[in-house]
Design a protein that fits this description.
Chain A is mostly helical. Chain A has helices at residues 2-7, 23-39, 51-58, 62-74, 93-117, 120-139, 142-158, 163-183, 195-204, 208-224, 238-242, and strands spanning 48-49, 78-81, 85-88. The structure holds a DNA duplex.
Amino acid sequence: MNQRQDLVGQRAPGSRRGKGGDGAERHEIIYRSISDAIIEHRLKPGARLREDALAEVFGISRTGIRKILQRLALEQLVTLTPRRGASVTRPTAEEAHEVFAARQMVECGLMPEVARCVDEASVKTLHELSDQEQKALRKGDHSAAIRHSADFHTCLARLAGNATLAEFVERLCFRSSLILAVYGKPGHLGCETHDHATLITLLKEGRGQEAAVLMGNHLRAVEATLAIVEEDQEAPDLHQIFLS
Amino acid sequence: MNQRQDLVGQRAPGSRRGKGGDGAERHEIIYRSISDAIIEHRLKPGARLREDALAEVFGISRTGIRKILQRLALEQLVTLTPRRGASVTRPTAEEAHEVFAARQMVECGLMPEVARCVDEASVKTLHELSDQEQKALRKGDHSAAIRHSADFHTCLARLAGNATLAEFVERLCFRSSLILAVYGKPGHLGCETHDHATLITLLKEGRGQEAAVLMGNHLRAVEATLAIVEEDQEAPDLHQIFLS
DNA sequence: CCGTCTATTTTTGTATACAACAAGCAATGT
DNA sequence: ACATTGCTTGTTGTATACAAAAATAGACGG
């Protein structure tokens, strides 16, 4: 909230150094702002992200915005169409399946190691995340719920101690959030079950193999709540539609 | 080869449009040029990549180079130090272990699916890659051997039909190449064994589980040939060294 | 009244200019 | 002789200016 005030606002050419935050840090904040907005569905898939508009909102020039958009594009949260600019990625049905298959492989594969590594502090953090998610869900705050769910899975992956794999899982979770936005049925919402809490219990007791199985079922269940069908945008067959 | 001629050379301010290739395509070519040079160890870890120099070499302005460097940084092939510029990433020992652990999980996990998907054409491609690698190895052409080895593993991963996972494997292979450059013993070189050929045979016969086991051993063997020890760069204890 | 062509406007792509920072070097003082 | 400090130089960070390409709207002809 406070940063907002700093970010927007005056940008007299010389006053650049006056800010407390370093330049790179400001970029990081802006990156996260946009990233969060996408993950929390405040920016919906397909939404256009004009450089000029973003530059004005955050009080930096287009150069910085472009850098950030490029980063988001590499993480597949936004799509950069040449000469058309940036928009929030709308995952295809195929991508959706791929992402869930990838999560299935990596997240399940990580469980045994996580079961070996958990300690008191981690369990506490996981519980908090899980509780926050449930609370948000009950309040009907979809944005927060999605955010906490992604955080839960990411946090879990991090416990295995492999930063490379954890980062991969994080990205998959972000993309999952986009998939939910596109293919999720209005009623259902992501990880609504009690699975997360059960998962924590299993891991705490060192039952890694069972945790892996549960995680597998959990991911399959989430994917099953989706209506992953490609609504063909390009070349809708008019003959098929009108001459039937 | 032809593009090379176009890329270097004159860059009269107005001649920008004269090129046959589209702008984005040229960027892709430059990206690949640098990426290849890193993967094939023609640019060694730690090598500095000055924007100005690269801009001149490829005949575009620093803006384009920065974009490319940023992309390479996100793929962890180059490291961007604030105010110090870009250099070829020197993986830490920890990163090295992480990358191999990740490959272990993903590449092995992919084998059953690959065994299900292989067809005649794929087998032929894989054999070619494997042969080229062996040939390069015999000729002592390390660059080509490393390249083909990475291509082999990437191609294999692609066969499973999951582009997301395949891309992840590709990146891991690239990073593995860097790891080899830093921690590889001069004598040994990557995948020197007959494993690749054996792998193809197993997959062709649909023995996915056995292929997974072999892949596991293969990766462990490669990692075992490395001398992964952190040579502490910062703060070498001079007292310890000279006053012993 | 509708379709097409053109002009305008909007938006991105690229280069360059300028300012800030880090590093190396020299000079001076202790 | 050594350390510290200030200057000079090289390199990156940021903004802006300009050019090219879409999208849009308007005019003209059928």
